[in-house]
Amino acid sequence: MSQHNDIGKQGEQIALDYLIDTKQFIILETNWRFSRAEIDIIAKNEETLIFIEVKTRSYDYYGKPEEFVSRRKEELVQDAANEYMKQVNHNWAIRFDIISILMNKDGTHSLEHFQDAWW
Q1: Parallel, antiparallel, or unpaired: how do β-strands 26-34 and 37-45 relate?
Q2: 101 in Cβ contact with 110 (< 8 Å)
Q3: Distance of alpha carbon 13 from its chain centroid, rounded?
Q4: 3-class DSSP state of 1
Q5: Distance CA 94, CA 4 (A)
Q6: Which of 20, 24, 65, 117 has the fewest beta carbons under 10 Å from its own?
Q7: Could you say which DSSP state residue 104 is in?
Q8: Which sign does the torsion angle of CA 113, 55, 102, 59 carry?
Q9: Three-state secondary-structure class, residue 39
Q10: Three-state DSSP class for 23?
Q11: How far apart are CA 26 and CA 15, in angstroms?
Q12: Tens digit of pLDDT for each residue in 24-76?
């Protein structure tokens, strides 16, 4: 597996730990796919269904990780979210979040959670 895939998987695990341990979210799905889209994490917090895009980078020379969520990626995630909601007969509030993780050379990381990142 290439290094960027390893960093991405590591970032997704950090995001999951944060959502479960710090935010007490209920994780419903990880890496849920529909057509050409993948939703990194689908979670529930109280009565809100949350679709989460995780962006992890080992450096921020060209921008912060969250800046790499393109409008096209947002559209793909929204399409997949619509399909997921149909499949689970969804009838409660939703939102789209981004978790941005920057990995440091010393093995530490910084995490930012952007709630309601787009719609």
Answers
A1: antiparallel
A2: yes
A3: 11
A4: coil
A5: 30
A6: 24
A7: -
A8: negative
A9: strand
A10: coil
A11: 13
A12: 999 999 999 999 999 999 999 998 999 999 999 998 888 899 999 999 999 99
